Amino acid sequence: MKKRVLITILIVVLLGLAIVAGLFIYAKFFENKDNDSKSEPTSSTDNSNDNNNNKEPEVKQPVNTSMLFTGDVLLSEYVLSNYNSKGIDGVVEGSLREDMVNADFAMVNEEFPFSNRGTKAPDKQYTFRVDPKYVSIFKELGIDAVGLANNHVLDFGKEALEDTFTTLNNAGILFTGSGNNLAEASKLVVCDKNGVKVGIVAASRVIPVVEWNVKNSQPGVFTAYDPTDLIGVVQKAKTECDLVYVMIHWGTEHTDKLEEYQKTIGHQLIDAGADGVIGAHPHVVQGIERYNGKPIFYSLGNYIFNQNIERTFALKIDYDNVNKTPNYSLIPAKAVGATTRKMSSEEASSLYSYLNSISTDVSIDEGGNVK
Ligand SMILES: [Zn+2]
Of 46, 93, 98, 322, which one's alpha carbon is 20 to 30 angstroms from that of 315? Predict the structure, then answer.
């Protein structure tokens, strides 16, 4: 009898404890649920993307978008021979190549067609054509886009230019300055990274014969002898992009003396809304001018070409999403034995003082910054 009472009491006590424990867990569970539903709206108004409710609201960090532009690129027999024997290191040396690859966007002037077809342009002293398989060099250099407005893209005629379009399209490399009609040839290349949209158009003020002009015969080159169309493209681009640059082929070869038309067109492009003008063709560097606060880099010189390049530079544009101003700096380079590499600091100093002596309203400091 006593034993049965004892067991009954024990069962009642255990049941009681189980109920209390159950209620406690139940209460805790709803307490958490409640917290969740309270904090959710707070986290979404904070614009916090994760589920950690205790995290502080994020402060917008500066994000830099870097763009790199170079002058004339020709994959000449010397360059290809280096590539075939030493790989990409024989074309552009390590640390300079890293700068190209690490930039968010890299663009060069492609001074040749990619093709194995076509007929050599008659009465032309130098004609260039490169086997399309060597587009691998552009990929290895991190080149995102090329300008095709120059005096060599039609060296082997329309078929070769069409092969160039196909080669670049297949490689995922954007282009501007040549096309199957005026609209295509004057189409912007757009770099849209980290919230900044940059539009670039290429045009040439040097073509050997009028038939190269896309308005006269297709496919062809977007030209700037009469800059009206180019100015129109810049004005329209300015309404669509945060920054607009013009890559232009112009000037006289082997001299730092500017043609009057370079200044006139350069100023007209800035007046139309361009944030900067990036020139090439003379094979040598020319001065920089700041006009209405915007830079005109008259000629960047040869970047990859024949055996030797005395001096050139890659133009680096850094734009951060906080200050919203583009900063310009030069990466000084030269080529020896058809390999392009960075200059030593002494060589760079001498390039900067030379550029300072031929530039207008611009000063380049020891770090290559354009002020
Ligand atoms: Zn040229």
Answer: 322
